[in-house]
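so im writing up the methods section and need the Phospholipid-transporting ATPase record in one place, dumping it here so i stop losing it
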Amino acid sequence: MGSVTSFFGGLCRKQVKIEEERLFRANDRPYNLSYQYANNAIRTSKYNVFTFLPLNLFEQFRRLANAYFMFLMVLQLIPQISSLSWFTTAVPLILVLSITAVKDASDDINRHTSDKQVNNRMVNVLIDGELKKEKWMNVQVGDIIKLENNQFVTADLMLLSSSEPLNLVYVETAELDGETNLKVKQALTVTGDLGDSTDLLAHFNGEVRCEPPNNRLDKFKGTLSLDGQTYSLDNDKVLLRGCTLRNTEWCFGLVIFGGPDTKLMQNSGKTTFKRTSIDHLMNVLVLCIFGFLASMCAILAIGSAIWEGVGAGLTSFLSFWSYVIILNTVVPISLYVSVEIIRLGNSFYIDWDRKMYYPKNDTPAHARTTTLNEELGQIKYIFSDKTGTLTQNIMAFNKCTINGKAYGELFDFSGQRVEITEKTERLDFSWNQLADPKFIFHDHSLLETVKEGNPEAQDFFRLLALCHTVMPEEKNEGELYYQAQSPDEGALVTAARNFGFVFRSRTPESITAMEMGKQVTYELLAVLDFNNVRKRMSVIVRSPEGKLTLYCKGADTIIYERLHPSCNKLKEVTTRHLNEYAGDGLRTLVLAYKDLDEDYMDKWRKRHHEASTAMDGREEMLDELYEEIEKDLQLLGATAVEDKLQDGVPQTIEQLAKADIKIWVLTGDKQETAENIGYSCNMLREEMKEIFVVAANTPEGVKEELVNARKKMCPESADEPSVISSRAGLFWLQKIERVEDEKVEGEYGLVINGHSLAFALEKDLHLELLRTACMCQTVICCRVTPLQKAQVVQLVKKYKQAITLAIGDGANDVSMIKAAHIGVGISGQEGMQAVLSSDYSFAQFRYLQRLLLVHGRWSYLRMCKFLQYFFYKNFTFTFVHFWYAFFCGFSAQTVYDEWFITLYNLVYTSLPVLGMSLFDQDVNDRWSSQYPQLYTPGQLNLYFSKKMFVRCMLHSCYSSLILFFIPWAAMYDTVRDDGKDIADYQSFALLAQTCLLIVMSVQLCLDTFYWTAVNQFFVWGSLASYFAITLTMYSNGMFLIFTSYFPFIGTARNSLTQPNVWLTIFLTSLLCILPVVAYRFIVLQLRPTVNDKVRHKLRKEALPAPAPRRPPTRRISTRRSGYAFSHAQGYGDLVTSRRFLLRLPLKSRPALFSQTDSPLAQNQPQHYRTIAEGQEDAQSP
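--- predicted struct ---
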């Protein structure tokens, strides 16, 4: 589709020059317009009024069958060769084209409406020194615009100034990455001084030189030239379209990229016309059928020439085209109409499924496309985002260990661990007026320990209240809200708040806290900031009593190296607890402190000041000072925070793995965070033989690590990959390459970093990456860019020839969603960008199991059964014509009544096969989920393939021989009971078509697994309608009224009253059906499939009950999570800046974590029904 659009686009406009660098001036529209940069209007629609008809028809005639029917219609306009009227093909063809066109037009009108709604939003633009309301679509590059709190960002902007201190703004990026925690952006000081003065802003004439439009959400390079000075611009100075301004009264920005050039739209990826593998196969099969049809017609034309004798060239030529028209029923147009109806019906089942409805957000599942349903039953690889897809991005303080004692678990009188549920009694924090009402904790012993005045416990929570970069917000007295840079920090400070150590406010030099009801102000002497190398953060404070203390929190391995030897025993106990927490998939941090000497501190501060003002080697000098003071620490304990998974994620992943679906997680998060979630989800398991980590920084290093991993998994694997080349597609023009799977004993996992992945995706290493990754059960890619996500999907698609599915919830997942065969968007979050680009959407990851194992499997099964049966009934119908040609002198006479030919596919056989294709199911939904192994035949394409098609043709050939020669032999020289002759053409035609219809009906009954009242009605109703219509059409009245149209007068009365006719029908049906029954019986006994075994089990057993909830088994892990904050460097400098908090009086702001009534938002325990596991020995009958 894209190539067609670009072709038409090329006719209508000049060739667009590739932009290498963007240059523009602020407040200078004429200068900027000379570069012809795109304005801010977006267009996601495919057509307009003028291009709709040609583009849509072109797209529809790319389907080979439509082109074929158009050709047939032209043939039928030639009276010398056509024995059928032209409208018999024209009417159904026009109907099919019209229905498809209306559907496409409706979809495109919705896209136009959506585009119009976005383009007509209003924003304040600075024009001629005044702020004027303008539509988004009229905003140009170089314009200065004003945004206000809770407004969407109009275009990609360079931040100029804001209402906040230090020119900060807070933005929510849920539309881009699915994350709801706020991000901080900061303007340059030189532009921040412009403030909100329209005069100063109107005279701002800075010149920006930056990178061209691209899809890198996390990077930006550019410079601002102003008054002869050049200032560097990076991603922290840029607000991206799709973000929402939060907790910021106003800000001004300069438009850098507009509309299609914005990073949001650049990440939308190319909209490709997705078609299923069955669609592609059908195109190839239809081509083969055309070839077969041509050969049949050629044989009959040669027969006609032999029959006519000398000079029969023209007759033979005309005979060829006559038979093309008569035998065209091998590919009836009703096939494509029926396929669309079946797909539409199965899409409605997804939309109507109450088990995929999420009541909290009132979000049902939605099939946004109707053309891909059966492919849901063939998925081999799933590519998933992490944040917002597997997790809720909600952190909960779950457990902790203080001075060697673990808190957070409940035990009964016998010492057995008790599972915490929604009914478990919560701690009552009503004694603390500043407590957060949403905070939940269950272990009373921790609160009692704190209230008793235990010094270690109080120091523990004091550390959590002081050592952080959280910003407090107090709207009214006692109503505290925290602006946390990461949800982890918010969870820890909130825990300290509820246990009596409330972080109240901060200034650049102090931190004020309420400690067990008493207000205490600490002098803040230094913040030793976090970075990715240090993996820890410290603060140095002086208490009101003058005591100097360093508080430190960080990754266990980092803190342990800096502990005083006296902590060794406590370290062993804490390590044991950390292993347990890591086994539960929790994110852990170790806490420690150190009392400092006043004299040493004075000297250290002087050296610190010298280092922080040094021009050369500043970072190295500061690191040395930090290392010096952060040693001989005293261990306090550790925290365990749960990155809350969505309900049912581990069970879903477990069931999908049993269905032999491989799951790859592609996330932008850090390695430690991604590994934690991997363990929490049961994707990474302790029992795996090995989990390989690829983190090299050079191509050679990456290759070595990949090869070593592969050799460990399969020592005998060849050095070079086994790539099999073959031809596929229409006319076999497409060259495909496939990398063979390699056998591996045991399960392995692979974790690869973003920089290593960048090397691995290069031309000479990509096959090595693919080989190694596909040998692993689980693959996790960290720090991945949106482009790399799409590249990984494309790599697997290209070389594995397997069906892929991508699932995500943010704009950073859009390119991956569009690259995969099927894209799924998680809806119900704030970010809806992924949903708008997806094929299917629902609110929770766990619904993916039902979408694939139930709806996907049923859709694939139904479509395959439909195609098998449809080709069987039409080939049988057509082959009878072929055999009859040898008995009618190759005259192109039809064997059936013309009305039967017209109504065969339209009335007599259409509804029964649709009934089977819409309602059939081999086992119900509960059994489908219970036995994921039922899914594997779809992955292997066992139910419909070229092999199955050939088998179907042979079956049709056999049936047609029976259906023609048995009635022919039975009618030959036959007389009625009264001695009158009935061996005429009309009686034979009636007998042949009656036998055909009854055999087709019995065959359908054999193919149907699941009977409903609708199926019964369609089957019996079709047979009844056949006899009713036949008796009516062959009646005297119809002959008298329409003599030329109904010539078969009295034939039905003459034939259907004879016992030998009914005996012939019975004998013919028996000979057609008996071999099918016998074959199926033998196969069932000798080689039963998984489906056969489960259906046999189903007959013997009752419906499987939902498994009772059981507490998760404790898993002790030797692997511990690191400093797992989604934290960024630089916030220590921010909170200690002397300009910070020099601002207007407090104004009302929306809360960072707004309260809702949902259990998830309130961090309540989650419940889900586990999926029962069948006994291994119970899986076979």
